[in-house]
Amino acid sequence: MQHTLRLTEQLIAHPSTTPDDAGCQDLIAQRLAPLGFVCETITSGPAHASVTNLWAKRAIPHVDIAHTATNSIAIAAQAKTFVFAGHTDVVPTGPLEAWASDPFVPTHRDGKLYGRGASDMKASLAAFVVAIEEFLAVSPEPQFNIALLLTSDEEGPATDGTVVVCQALRARGETIDYCVVGEPTSVTRTGDMIKNGRRGSLSGKLTVKGLQGHIAYPQLAKNPIHLAAPALADLVAIEWDQGNAFFPPTSWQISNIHSGTGATNVIPGHMVVDFNFRFSTESNPEGLKQGVTAILDKHGLAYDIAWTLGGLPFLTTPGPLVGAVQAAILAETGLNTQLSTTGGTSDARFIAQICPQVIELGPPNATIHQIDEHIAVADIEPLKNIYRRLLENINALEQAARA
Asked: Where is the active site (predicted)?
């Protein structure tokens, strides 16, 4: 019996539509506690939409200095912490009648496992747990602390999930040295792509003020659409930065424009534009804000802007964690994995604020958030093995550091 596959099936059977954990974290904690993990539940958010977070840590035990070498306590205190991070919540199923099988009944067809969350990200969660079990069975006294950080608020607003746990860890002085997030990063085969960074996200809601009037008397009105059009053209055309070796140039995109009363003979009194920056490490939020307002001011617009910072960019340059991940993937699959910073934001953006080395690594993402989401069964066991090999590589790094 493939233990990772079985646990994946069990997790899919828990209908954990965001922000409901639906018992997934309890199931995982029950597997971790016998291994020496101290499991802490951190709840957050309003009562009607409570978020469940799990921080489970297995620390190197503090040793009795009277019965061992004089540097043992120092070693325990200096031990680095490796974290597997992820989310137990899934996106809504959409219309149930559109699914070929119940999204919360794990179903096998043609070598694939179907169910909501199969690839995003319950297979990764199962692989975390079984990889840890197998690693500790062979190396019961590793040279580093192991932890899991799980949330039921990643697919939702992400305001009461990983960010809350990171704030709590920072407040009590806990540190994280390495982190792997189980997001589905692969393209066609597990391990063919990992994310060693992500772009930042900065959104704005721009309200351009005009003066409503009859369309036959434009001299008595101020059309905000006409007034804003040249400024929007400038914003589209500007080169915000040139990117770098790891990131493409910063992108500014309009997602929505709304104006007018619905009547065809009325010049609108205002226009609302929703836009978003996906920005590289070559730019920063304040500089982008200043760039936008400078263009709007140049065109003499009357306006208001409400800004929302979705997350800062982060980058883990090639180093110990990247090397350990690359080696684990190569040993298991024979693939030379591709480093990438493409795609949307994830909870890695919060972890990167307290951890210097963060990587995202998970199964193929072709069907995530779709009707009939699935994962190839052949991708599950290699994912677990990559995670286990990664733990072995981190242990070797820490042993070498103390040699």
From this structure: 89, 154 (proton acceptor)
Domain assignments of the chain as residue spans, ordered by start: 3-62+76-198+313-402, 200-311
Matching fold, domains 3-62+76-198+313-402 and 200-311: no
> Which residues line the annotated binding site for Zn(2+)?
87, 120, 155, 183, 369
225, with CB counted inside 10 A (0-12, 13-18, 19+), is middle
Which CATH architecture is the domain 200-311 placed in? Answer: 2-Layer Sandwich (3.30)
Q: How far apart are CA 340 and CA 337, in angstroms?
A: 10
| Annotated catalytic residue, options 9, 154, 177, 392 | 154
Catalytic residue, candidates 20, 89, 373, 398: 89
154 is catalytic: yes
For the annotated binding site, the residues are 87, 120, 155, 183, 369
**Is pTM, for the whole model, over 0.85?**
yes
Q: Is 64 a known active-site residue? A: no
Q: CATH number of the domain at 3-62+76-198+313-402, out of 3.40.630.10, 3.40.50.300, 1.10.150.80, 3.40.640.10?
A: 3.40.630.10
C-alpha distances out from residue 88 to 17, 35, 119, 150, 253, Å: 9, 21, 12, 7, 31
pLDDT tens column, 234-283: 999 999 999 999 999 999 999 999 999 999 999 999 999 999 999 999 99
